[in-house]
Design brief:
The protein has 303 residues and is an alpha/beta fold. The chain contains twelve helices and eight strands. It is globular.
């Protein structure tokens, strides 16, 4: 059963679809972009943040200026005595932060990488309370301008979609991110499907749903239909490693299969039993992405 606040919101959107569909579409977009208050975290997340704190303290923290506010960028160097071999960008997912990417960051730096990890707008130590594809891509591109070019960019969940769009330059007025290789971990493929599902959750009518799509186009300079990752990778043939758990309940495995169909430059490796978040610390996953970021052929977790 839907919660009482969601029931009220749905009723309001159903009425607005008839009398003010453009307003309803914009309101739905603003609701979609709104991020949680950074100080309101669950006890479980607080424990995770406390555990990650000593590691995060090792980074140099930079504040990068973007049009939507300052973005936090963490600069991790290889351990003393380890030769620096490459520079890698790491991007977390929706309602996450760089602190939750520490296993990936640590594996990369121990292999000789300088790792730049950004907190997306409205997350972690970055400014604002809004996140969308446009300001996320700008954040990644700004990191590229300061620290790039990168040998690899690694994105988890929504961060994977951001990485794809930053590399192909899909947002009008934002320079392309430059990287040699791409790693997608549990990444969604289709932004149109993403927004359609969001619209169904809000019970948007057809006119409000169209207005929502139109608002995204006005913001990014492209129609929402252009934001399908597999189609983007088919046109822009970056060497790509896709890591996904078959049992992922948040981003179903069909998203990974779609990326895999983009062409022979994409390699799909399954990570069974790890789910959407535990995949970030799976030893086999860390070995795969570390090798790939170094330009080595990925192994296969599953035959």
């Amino acid at each position: 059963m839907a919660s009482f606040p969601l029931t009220v919101i749905r009723s309001a959107f159903r009425i607005a679809d008839h009398i003010a569909p453009r307003l309803a579409g914009r309101a739905a977009f603003e609701l979609f972009c709104r991020t949680p208050h950074p100080q309101r975290v669950s006890d479980r997340e607080r424990r995770a943040l406390d555990q990650a704190a000593p590691f995060m303290a090792e980074a140099r923290l930079h504040r990068l200026t973007t049009r939507s506010g300052c973005v936090a960028a963490y600069d991790f160097r290889p351990p003393p005595g380890t030769e620096r071999r490459r520079t890698v960008l790491v991007i977390h997912g929706w309602r996450s932060r760089s602190d939750h990417m520490v296993a990936i960051i640590d594996a990369l730096r121990r292999d000789g990488a300088r790792v730049i990890a950004i907190d997306l707008p409205g997350h972690g130590k970055s400014a604002g309370r809004r996140l969308n594809m446009a300001n996320a891509v700008e954040a990644a591109a700004t990191a590229g301008a300061w620290f790039g070019p990168f040998e690899a960019v690694i994105g988890h969940s929504f961060g994977g979609a951001v990485a794809v769009n930053a590399l192909v330059g899909s947002v009008s007025g934002v320079e392309k991110l430059v990287a040699e290789r791409l790693v997608l971990v549990s990444a969604p493929n289709s932004m149109p499907s993403f927004f359609a599902e969001f619209g169904r959750m809000l019970d948007l009518g057809p006119r409000a749903q169209t207005a929502l799509f139109d608002h995204v186009e006005r913001l990014t300079g492209r129609p929402l239909e252009d934001y399908v990752g597999a189609d983007q990778l088919a046109r822009h043939r970056f060497p790509t490693l896709v890591l996904h758990a078959p049992c992922d309940k948040e981003v179903p495995a069909e998203n990974a299969r779609a990326y895999d169909d983009a062409g022979p430059h994409v390699r799909l490796v399954w990570a069974p039993g790890l789910g959407h978040r535990r995949i970030l610390a799976g030893p086999g996953v860390l070995a795969e992405l570390t090798r790939f970021a170094a330009g080595e052929r990925a192994l296969s977790l599953v035959d």
